[in-house]
Write a structure and sequence with these properties.
- This protein is α/β, with parallel strands linked by helices and about 290 residues long.
- The protein has one domain (about 25-285): Metal-dependent hydrolases (TIM Barrel), CATH 3.20.20.
- It is built from twelve helices and eight strands.
- It has helices at about 1-25, 40-50, 60-70, 95-100, 125-135, 165-170, 185-195, 205-210, 210-225, 245-250, 260-275, 280-285; strands spanning about 30-35, 55-60, 75-80, 110, 140, 175, 200, 230.
- The termini are far apart.
- The structure holds zinc ion.
- Zinc ion binds near residues 34 and 235.
Length: about 290
């Protein structure tokens, strides 16, 4: 019995210590999250709070994104995901523009055209990149060598260099690539060197691929000098909120990173990319 009480005491202490660690960790911005039914929101927000995630780039169907954004004001950057696999095609460009102008949306993507085998340089995507450049929106695109198993998903439509023409045509585009294009390392090194506007997230790979493979990839990107353009993401959503702490831990356990480099990945790079105001940054740091 005494042993049992001791275990309970340790567990209680752990619960007290965890939020403290999150406080010491500093705020986190999650650049890759997906909305779902509103009944799952409470669990997601609780896990965000535990990990000190103050803000998240949220994409899904507009219906789900608006529901979550309304239910948790200030926590999310609402953004349309398209073409949503098996549900919707490309959104009507005029309706989309109207949503941005009304201030209801603040980002674009996740653009999931790779799931339909459509590469980023396809003409069908061109109007959306033009709109994002014109309205100065942060854009998330799934251009990588991994994805969920879907019959129309094509690896060949996710080669990072397929973005090159888009970047040339839209030099002011603020774009970031899911999973830093994993595992296309040489292509990502080339793309990030030549196009300094390109950022990348470290999302699904934090919990989906073997930890060593993730750390090797991350370490190569940092050694190549891109530590200021990598941003934390969980790719969590209503169906897998539990990956949030695992994603955080995957960065924290990267012993080859300095504390400053971790802070860049967790917060500073995203704050710069998103152009957060001084006031908001101060608020996130409890100042
Ligand atoms: Zn995603």
């Amino acid at each position: 019995m005494r042993h049992f009480i001791a275990v309970l005491t340790v567990l209680a202490l752990c619960r007290m210590i965890l939020p403290l660690q999150a406080q010491q960790r500093g705020p986190i911005i999650d650049m890759h999250m997906h909305a779902g039914p509103v009944d799952s929101l409470q669990r997601v927000v609780a896990l965000m709070d535990e990990s000190h995630i103050v803000k998240a780039f949220l994409s899904s169907s507009l219906e789900n994104v608006y529901r979550w954004t309304a239910a948790a004001p200030g926590r999310f950057i609402p953004s349309p995901m398209f073409p949503v696999y098996g549900i919707e095609g490309f959104p009507d460009i005029d309706s989309l523009r109207a949503e941005y102008l009304a201030g209801r949306l603040h980002g674009m993507g996740e653009i999931t055209s790779q799931y339909l085998g459509i590469p980023p340089n396809a003409p069908s995507l061109e109007p959306y990149f033009a709109l994002a450049e014109e309205l100065d929106l942060p854009v998330l695109i799934h251009t990588a060598g991994m994805g969920a198993p879907r019959p129309t998903f094509r690896l060949s439509a996710g080669h990072p260099l397929l973005l090159e023409e888009v970047l040339v045509r839209h030099p002011r585009l603020r774009i970031y690539l899911e999973n830093a294009g994993y595992p296309f390392l040489p292509e990502m090194l080339a793309l990030m060197y030549q196009y300094p506007q390109v950022y990348a997230d470290l999302s699904t790979m934090t919990w989906l691929v073997p930890r060593q493979a993730f750390h090797d990839y991350l370490s190569a990107l940092v050694r190549a000098g891109y530590g200021k353009r990598l941003m934390f993401g969980s790719d969590a959503g209503s169906s897998r909120p539990h990956v949030i702490p695992r994603a955080v831990e995957a960065i924290e356990s990267a012993s080859f990173l300095t504390d400053e480099q971790k802070r860049d990945i967790f917060y500073n790079n995203a704050a710069r990319f998103l152009r957060l105001s001084e006031e908001e940054i101060a608020r996130h740091h409890g100042r």
